[in-house]
Amino acid sequence: MSFDFKRMIKFEHNLGDKDKKYRMFGGAALVLISLFTAKIFLLLIGTVLIGTSFFGWCPVYSGLNKNTCTSGVSESSE
Predict the structure, then answer these.
(1) Whether pTM exceeds 0.90
(2) Contact at 8 Å (CB) between 68 and 16?
(3) Of 65, 66, 74, nearest to 7 (Cα)?
């Protein structure tokens, strides 16, 4: 499996509902923990997780050609 940088910058929805929910809850938990522990790193990671779940797109998933959407979208095998 290779990492495709050109595909990474292409915006295509690739997060399913379950993946979005896990990222939202995990990101919210990290943001709350960062508020009590004053850790900037946790705040940044939590914000990224919340942002990717909100937009439904993960650049790492795009680069790895991974898709967790179950909306009937088929992956192209290039």
Answers:
(1) no
(2) yes
(3) 65
